[in-house]
Amino acid sequence: MQSRLLLPGLTLWATLAAAEPAALLFHANFDGGLDASMAKGAAKAMVSGRVALVEGHAGKGVSIEAKGFLSYVAAGNLLPGRGSVCFWFKPLAPVQSRAGWDRLFDIHGATDKENCIRIHFMKGAPKLYAALASRVRASLTSFADVSDWSAGRWRHVAFTWDGASARLYLDGGLVAHTVDPVLPEALESAFYLGSRKEGGEESRGVFDELRVYSGPLAGREVAALAGLDAAEASRVELLNEAKLRYLDTPLVTFRISGPLPPPPSRVSERFPLSDQENRGGWALVDAFSDEFTGARMDASKWSNTIDSWGQWEWRAENTWHENGFLKVRMLYTNLGNGRYYTSGTYRSLGTIRYGYFECRMKGSTVNPGTCPAFWLFCNDADRWTEIDWLELGQQYSNKAYQSPANVLDYTLHLFKHPRFHNPSQAKGQVPGHYQHSLLGYEAPFNPSEGFHVYGGLWTPTEISIFLDGVKLVTRTNDYWDQPLWLILSMGVRNPYLKQPSGEGFPALWEIDYVRTWKNAATRN
Length: 524
Prior knowledge:
By secondary structure, this protein is mainly beta. The chain is built from two helices and 36 strands.
């Protein structure tokens, strides 16, 4: 069902999972052959190439070799909007030695590959990747580090989803979680085990006990399927729920749309737009503030020569001051090694912990396709966190669909923290990495067509987002407590990551000012 929540000027929709228990729709145990041992739809296996019954986890299992595939009819056996897929898998080679994609479970959209439910090993990385995707919204994905997966050892994999969340489990334990996932639309008529539709990208392992359910299984149910006894299943479920509490509550995480309440009137440039009466007792922090009225970059505050990140090639000549604005451009040029763009960034020389951060800017002239961002970041020995006050052109980006120009994204990242404990990782290391879309706002304006004020409040107890002085969302701050750099940057995004083009370039992004304040509640 759907639940409607109201905030001033905004309508929020959240899809809530039905309370009904998940029912088994499909089960292939392979003991009596390749056909399903139980199926609500067709049980007959569709086979091509080298598919063989071999010794399994319990009885027989199945392996799929070069250019072979094993598939089953989806109708009656799988529901796009909610479900669970579970199976045992034994890799026949160390995962870290794999150079290409290895498909474990796959069902594509009826007309395009981006519309899917998918579980596979990532290309060139020892990570398990589980995704839901829609033709009009990009996949929200879950990742899990599987670098410790050795050849010949059975592992249990489970992926559950509905409109509220998607969860990835390994050996009964929760390893990744996505809130408010995008659900697939029309899917193909069959799902595939161990390879893609055309054959190829085989899993290089053995499968057993493939199960598909009508809804998301509870943690204790997944733990039981993974072979844990009742006491251990109960312990693992408590650990799973603790992880969810750490990562997701109390938390507001919705995509919202609609007009905002009228913005507050600007009376003073000395205070945040959201607090023009200065009820918070704010004092400007000059080292992290700039009006960009000087002829060139203030080298006592900023660097514009920091190292590039993959496709994000940042060069000093792509930033300059003009008429009281910081201008950042992106150029199209073939750099080799699959890179085609250069852009610019300002990063603070020092780091800061807590405060109110505000930036008045106009989005890039190429939107979607570039990502102007106003953010905080640092990677220390024991902490690695990030707060994205604003990213444009960020969500819903894939080959089939370009990010809407009016979507504003606000994201939190947690890579490492000493208070985060995961038994299968080094202390403090988050499995994969936790990325949470704090808010995706479908604005009633195009940010590239005018200036708006983007703000963020970061205290020891909360993280809040503001747009034109109006608060959009607040979450409790549980991990973001290290000093961070303040960064303004523009990076390349889809469609140009996958389909480079010079059309519309150079792109230009304009920043009027960036200001930072502190008060009694945000002093270190």
